[in-house]
Amino acid sequence: MSININLGAWSSVFAVPSKIVDEGLKFSDGVKLKVLLYVLRNAGKNLTDSDISAATGVNVTDIPEALDYWVNMGVLCKSNGEFTPVQQEESQSANDNSVKEIKAEPKQSVEEIAKDVGETKQKFVVTKPQKPDYVFTAQRLAVDEDLKILVGEAQSALGKVLSNSDIATLLMLKDTCGLPLDVIMMLIQYCISIGKSNMRSVENIGIKWADDGVFSVEAADAKIRQANISNQNYSIVKTAFGLNNPGSPTAKQLEFCNRWITEWKFSSEMLREAYERCVDTKGVMRFSYIDGILKRWHNAGVMNLNDLAELDSDKKKKSGTQKRKTSYNIDEIKKIDTLDFID
Predict the structure, then answer these.
(1) What are the φ and ψ backbone dihedral angles of 85, each rounded to 5 degrees?
(2) What's the whole-model pTM score?
(3) Residue-by-residue DSSP string for 33-87
(4) Which one, of 173, 177, 183, lies nearest residue 216 by Cα?
């Protein structure tokens, strides 16, 4: 990808917008700042990811996300793979127009104006938090007492000495994702309990918790209880279907299992019956098709095999009645044919 920051007449000046300090520092890290400062310093030059990586020490795969961060923050604009600075004049003009529009509506209440502004304001979301680099992590570990405590407890729980990359993960979950220390420790204990005592799992699940707003011990406890219920439900379904080593379930599969067992309360034998009917019809096992079968049974009030037998019997009776209604009487047809030939 070719990167060209064109500052025009200001290309000889190494300018850093105040917006970076005022709004961008809170969620940024060493990686994002390194990338931005380097491309600003080399404005007007065609830079590649490899160029930036060689000069900053940032991994090549992390550079696109770092640049996208500053796009989301409103510092850079991205068009056709090229980056340009956001024009302050355009932003100010847009703000002025917004003010004029508000003044032109004197009958609009303050509450209505606030609602309109709230609806148009875009919320910044970090799609994939980035771990801080080696130097930044080492510096923080030297001065951040909370981080030292977290690293010590994590090492005790996991039974190993954490690498710099592992510590960077904890720092990211703490600072970038905003998870409190006690919540991070609950997260680590939960990962150990499900047999995923590696920092990669801690990182992935931690980011999901942050996205779901799990920022308290109570929320973390509820999250863990729900996860345990989902895993138990999937285990019941897996056994009923006779699945061996199916791998980790998808979020949609867990949703199906929770609905079938927790909400609709189907037994293992009913799950097995639905599974067999799916395979007999489709030739393969499909969660979505099985969900359709169980949904029809649930709506019909079918909860066991006896109820299902009655439902199938009623369907056969209705089908037979329908066939008799649509069948033809041969004698009547012959009579009609004979009448057709009478002058």
Answers:
(1) -70, 145
(2) 0.54
(3) HHHHHHHHHTTTSEE-HHHHHHHH---GGGHHHHHHHHHHTTSEEEETTEEEEPP
(4) 183
How far apart are alpha carbons 170 and 244 in whole angstroms?
Answer: 35
Confirm if 43 and 5 have CB atoms less than 8 A apart.
yes
Percent of the chain, pLDDT > 90? 47
pLDDT band at 265 (very low <50, low <70, confident <90, very high): very high
Q: How far apart are CA 273 and CA 145, in angstroms?
A: 58
Q: How far apart are CA 49 and CA 87, in angstroms?
A: 24
Could you tell me if 32 and 71 are in contact, meaning their C-beta atoms sit under 8 angstroms apart? no
Statement: residue 336 has pLDDT above 70: no
Model pLDDT, residue 132: 86
Can you list the positions of beta strands (E) in the chain? 3-4, 46-47, 76-79, 82-85
User: Does residue 42 contact residue 54 with C-beta atoms inside 8 Å?
Assistant: no
Q: Which structure tokens are listed for 156?
A: 């005790």
Do β-strands 76-79 and 46-47 pair in parallel, antiparallel, or remain unpaired? Answer: unpaired
pLDDT at 333: 45
pLDDT (average), residues 127-152: 87
- Determine which helix (DSSP H) or strand (DSSP E) holds 311, and give its type and residue range: helix 305-326
Is a pLDDT exceeding 80 seen at residue 99? Answer: no
As a whole number, mean pLDDT of residues 332-340 equals 48
Between the alpha carbon of residue 6 and those of residues 10, 43, 326, 330, the distances in Å are 9, 6, 77, 88
Checking if the pLDDT of 86 tops 80, the result is: no
User: Is the CB of residue 177 less than 8 Å from the CB of residue 168?
Assistant: no
**CA distance linking residue 231 with residue 333, whole number of Å:** 64
pLDDT at 77: 80
Secondary-structure breakdown of the chain: helix, strand, coil percentages, each rounded to the nearest 5: 70, 5, 30
